[in-house]
Amino acid sequence: MKLEWRYGSEADLGLLAEWNHQLIRDEGHQNPMTVEQLAGRMKTWLQGEYRSVIFSERAPVAYALFKKEDRLIYLRQLFVQRERRRCGIGREAFTILRREIWPSHVRLTVDVLCQNVGAMVFWRNLGYQDYSLTLEIMPENNPDGNNIGAGIRQ
Fold first, then answer.
1. How far apart are CA 75 and CA 77, in angstroms?
2. What is the pTM assigned to this prediction?
3. Is 80 exceeded by the pLDDT of residue 25?
């Protein structure tokens, strides 16, 4: 397999938004945004500090969205088409990012939802190590908003 890559542009917003929508559903994220809303958000990101890379094998099969800082690259999204997963595309895309796009002297970070065990295994196999865990309390349908201690066993 030989992936080709190119930087994404505004012309790719429709594809990136559709794939982002699939990614949100596949990883079990709570984001309720529509494809149209995601396209608007993606446009803002690409006009700002984020870059996208589209990976192709005759046709687009994957994308990455990341932000570069002085000593850090934050990989916000890596998506491979559902029917093309578990074929080495994600690993090859990551290899391209590391060898051809990202500088070698920076720290790499990626966030993974706790319930997305497959993604955790994937990223750990590529060399990422656990660094932090974000905990949350979700709001309940309580009109007075007083949920302190909800769910805590006494």
1. 6
2. 0.82
3. no
